[in-house]
Amino acid sequence: MTREELNQLATVGDLESLYSRIINDLRDIISNSLNNKEFFTPREFSQTTGMKYSTVIHYCNTGQLKARQERSRGAWQIHASELERYMYEAEDNTL
After folding, report:
1. In whole angstroms, what is the distance from residue 57 CA to residue 63 CA?
2. What are the C-alpha distances in Å from 64 to residues 3, 12, 59, 84?
3. In sequence order, what are the residues at sequence separation of 6 or more whose Cβ sits closer than 8 angstroms to the Cβ of residue 81?
4. With contact defined as beta carbons under 8 Å apart, do 80 and 34 qualify?
5. For 34-89, how does the pLDDT look when each residue is reduced to its tens digit (9 = 90+)?
6. Distance separating alpha carbons of residues 9 and 6, to the nearest angstrom
7. Distance (Å, rounded) from C-alpha 62 to C-alpha 46?
8. Which value, to the nearest 10 degrees, does the dihedral of the CA atoms of residues 13, 89, 33, 46 take?
9. Which residues pair with 76 in a beta bridge?
10. What is the largest CA-CA distance in the chain?
11. In the chain, what are the domains?
12. Residue 72 per-residue DSSP state
């Protein structure tokens, strides 16, 4: 391998460092969000977590996310605690 090819490889340490930074950044984002709001719209939840909007709506409809509607067929409101739960589940699934 040439020096240039070796420089393009990522080591396990590099990946672990990147993983730690991503988790810490996600914690900061969620922590800041939790301090400000009690409920999130599906769009806000999608943007914060990176989950597809259609998946968020599906999870609301099937009860996989703690969410409510003020009236039948109304807009979903997702409880802020779901952001923290999502973060912990995502972390557990990558370990």
Report:
1. 10
2. 49, 34, 5, 14
3. 34, 66
4. yes
5. 566 789 999 999 998 889 999 999 999 999 999 999 888 899 999 988 988 887 78
6. 5
7. 16
8. 100
9. 69
10. 64
11. 38-95 (1.10.1660)
12. T
